[in-house]
Amino acid sequence: MNLIFLGPPGVGKGTQALQVAAYAKLAHVATGDILRAAVKAGTKTGLEARSYMDSGRLVPDEVVNRLVRERLEEKDTQGGVLFDGYPRTPAQAQSLDAALRELGRKISGVFDFQAPDAVLVERISGRRTCGKCQKAYHVKFAPSKAGESCETCGGALVQRSDDKPETVQKRLDVYRKDTAGVGDHYRKAGVYQAIAADGPIGAITEDVLARVKRLA
Asked: Is 44 an annotated catalytic residue?
């Protein structure tokens, strides 16, 4: 089984991906992870990716696609893969299709996690992190018992600059611009499913696992 989890920042697809990958015994493949791993390992493609990252440029599709293709050569992916946040563009989707065909595999299901922008902005902009111990909080969903301080070490809680509401909205707009057409690509293939992701985490997990079981 090979699955794709799509969704904008703050929608919770990463949380769901970890649980589903563990349940279905799938290799969890996220582009951020494979970029960091390739850079750390000093592979040819990793060094190429690092040259873009070090200069503050986006790593181009061609390099990301090559990293994904190389990841699919690894033994732990033979039993199935859960792609977390990839493909992000129609070009990446086409590249993934081609790579899987070469390996005699195909996508079993694409789950697109969706929630209103207001919900996503609230989730992300409410995040706070302790400046000393890095413990994470949320002003609404997981507040510190010590108010504006960390309940563990007493450090001041801070908000990341890219978690401010106006910045979050820009991130959502960029995501939608980049991913336009990806959903349609997989609808045509008959493997696309939209997931309502604005409810309780447990209920979303139950819904997703039920869908995965039907695909198995």
From this structure: no
Q: Does some domain include residue 91?
A: yes
CATH number of the domain within which 183 lies: 3.40.50.300
Question: Which residue range forms the structural domain that includes residue 183?
Answer: 2-26+79-115+178-215
In sequence order, what E strands does the chain have? 2-6, 27-30, 81-84, 109-114, 127-130, 136-138, 157-158, 192-196
Of 25, 44, 140, 160, the active-site residue reads: 160
pTM check: above 0.85: yes
Catalytic residue among 66, 123, 127, 128: 127
Max Cα distance, the chain (Å) = 55
101 is catalytic: no
Tell how strand 109-114 and strand 2-6 pair up.
parallel
Measured distance CA(170)–CA(120) in Å, rounded? 12
170 is catalytic: no
Q: Is 123 a catalytic residue?
A: no
List the structure tokens of 193: 């499913």
- Closest Cα partner for 83 from 8, 182, 13? 13
Q: How much is the pLDDT for 56?
A: 77
Length of the chain: 216
> Is there a contact between 109 and 211 (Cβ–Cβ < 8 Å)?
yes
pLDDT in tens, 100-157: 999 999 999 999 999 999 999 999 999 999 999 999 999 999 999 999 999 999 999 9
Known catalytic residue: 13?
yes
